[in-house]
Amino acid sequence: MKGKPGTPEGWKPLVLHHEHDEPLQSEFLLALGRFMDAYARAEVDLVSEVRNFIAWHGGKNSFGPLSEVVAVLSEKLPVAYLLEAAEALLERRARLTKAQAARLKECTSHMEDLRSLRNLLAHQPADLDPFSEVPFVAMKRRSKGGDIKLEVTKLQPEVLVNAAEDITTAVYLYRDLLYDPSSPAWERRQPWRYTRAQLLKQHLALPGHK
After folding, report:
1. In the 8-state DSSP scheme, what is residue 178?
2. What is the tens place of the pLDDT at every residue in 184-199?
3. Strand, coil or helix: what is 64?
4. Distance between CA 128 and CA 198 in Å, rounded?
5. DSSP-based three-state secondary structure for 197
6. If pLDDT is split at 50, 70 and 90, which confidence band does 180 have?
7. Considering the entire predicted model, what is its pTM?
8. Are 61 and 28 in contact (CB under 8 A)?
9. For residue 66, which of 40, 58, 94, 182 is within the disulfide window of CB 3.0 to 4.6 Å?
């Protein structure tokens, strides 16, 4: 359907979905702070638990007591390296079943999804777009081969509340699975509240670029 004369085909008028009101902004900032705080606390707990697990079960190697090696590495390397080391020790010690390995992988994959969300919001501000049904928009700028593109992520405040709940739960479950791969806590868990599908993503090219 064509718009008014002189307008591009497929053009649609803007619809105001949200006002620039204090309550909506405050709701988002409160949810953002809750998620960031929960993530920081969970990450500290995760590193501490994994370091303890490696030191307890790893013994010594050619570099000396593993606890000292881990203490140095955990200050310099991403948390993912610590998790890989802990899971390698667990596999050597417990010989995980396929089901147990799948539980551990699901837990680490979900923590990785939450880490990606944390990194996005730590480096790209999310602004209120009054013309978007999903109100808050974070934009990441990418340059490749002379082209400039925007990766747009839209989200609701409740997405961050869900993520805050999940990161705390995920670290708790991960710790339990390290020490007891058949932990009943896994069977009692609730479904994850946050999923990547709750984020609306778009890829846009800046005007004048491919």
Report:
1. H
2. 999 999 999 999 999 9
3. strand
4. 17
5. helix
6. very high
7. 0.78
8. no
9. 58
Alpha-carbon span 196 to 198, nearest angstrom: 5
Report d(CA 80, CA 74) in Å as an integer.
10
Which ranges of the chain would DSSP assign to H, the alpha helix? 22-58, 66-76, 79-94, 98-123, 157-179, 184-188
Q: How far is CA 201 from each of CA 38, 60, 180, rounded to the nearest angstrom?
A: 24, 47, 38
Sequential DSSP letters for 103-148: HHHHHHHHHHHHHHHHHHHHHS-EEE-TTSSS-EEEEEEEEETTEE
For residue 88, which of 68, 64, 61, 119 has the smallest C-alpha distance?
61
Q: Which two tokens stand for residue 128?
A: 């209120």
Please report where in the chains the tokens 């993530």 appear, as a residue.
39
State the Cα–Cα distance between residues 77 and 80, nearest whole angstrom: 8
